[in-house]
Write a structure and sequence with these properties.
MetI-like fold, flat
């Protein structure tokens, strides 16, 4: 066993022991507890990168098969303008626009379904059917309908995010108990007052569950849709093009940017959930 692999093994043992010690700590200081909560996944991620680097170098794996993290990082630094342009095209235009439109439309339609038993029995089965359609089948059709630029990617994202939001919101609106709804009726509350003061607050955990699911689905849908037609910019376009050129370090750089963007997006939605559903037992338990 060469020195690189020995270093990887020793680093893994050290990081494992340190993480095992950190997770056992129960500090009374809230700031310190949060710092430990951040340090554990960060240390775990650094460990994976170090082992990745050492394994690639220790076993002399060809970079065309698996480039080391140092090579990917160098590509990110040297190609920042290209990566930023791709990020703007895919994430800021396609993902955000489609996410807001799809989630918003799904929420509005869920409210309408709640008012109409006919829509609930007729539209929900269709929604479940459409949500099972593969993105690789929908994306080429959207490109033919809306063109090669970002509106076709927005259409794909809307399709992928609409039905998770619809189904979760409908389920959440029925989460309040009959006793709670009877109490609202004894106060002479109408449908709108009951919706705003009781049923929507009870549905927020379901709605945020859909928002978190859609935060990842939106990015996947936009990138896959770019494989089927896009201007000469975008994460999906860059990945498919650079694979053909065997520039795997650029492919991994795009993957890294997408992973970081998706994680930050998911984290922001999760923070919003904690702020809105602070009363929920899962959130209160997390703060205890």
């Amino acid at each position: 066993m060469n020195g690189t692999l020995v270093f990887a093994l020793l680093f893994w043992i050290f990081a494992w022991g340190l993480n095992a010690w950190l997770v056992k700590q129960r500090p009374k200081n809230l700031a310190l507890a949060r710092l430990i909560g951040i340090a554990v996944p960060v240390l775990f991620g650094i460990t994976l990168l170090v082992i990745w680097e050492c394994v690639v170098r220790g076993f002399a794996i060809p970079t065309i098969l698996l480039p080391p993290p140092s090579m990917i990082g160098a590509r990110i630094l040297s190609s920042t303008p290209i990566l930023w342009a791709d990020f703007q095209q895919t994430f800021l235009k396609s993902v955000i626009t489609g996410y807001v439109a799809g989630c918003g439309l799904g929420f509005v339609v869920a409210i309408l379904i709640d008012r109409s038993p006919f829509l609930q029995k007729g539209l929900l089965p269709i929604g479940n059917f459409v949500s099972a359609l593969p993105v690789v089948g929908v994306a080429p059709i959207m490109v033919m309908w809306f063109g090669f630029d970002w509106p076709s990617k927005v259409a794909v994202v809307v399709i992928m995010t609409f039905f998770p939001m619809l189904v979760n919101t409908v389920q959440g609106l029925s989460a309040s108990s009959h006793m709670e709804r009877d109490l609202m009726r004894t106060y002479a509350a109408g449908w709108g007052q009951t919706l705003v003061k009781l049923r929507l607050p009870a549905a927020w955990p379901f709605i945020f569950n859909a928002l978190k699911i859609n935060s990842t689905l939106a990015l996947i849908g936009a990138i896959v849709a770019e494989f089927f037609g896009t201007p000469i910019v975008g994460m999906g376009f860059r990945i498919s093009t650079e694979v053909g050129r065997s520039n795997v370090d650029m492919v991994w750089a795009e993957i890294a940017v997408a992973a970081v963007a998706g994680s930050v997006f998911y984290g922001l939605v999760a923070l919003g959930e904690r702020a809105v559903t602070f009363w929920h037992p899962s959130v209160r338990g997390g703060r205890a």
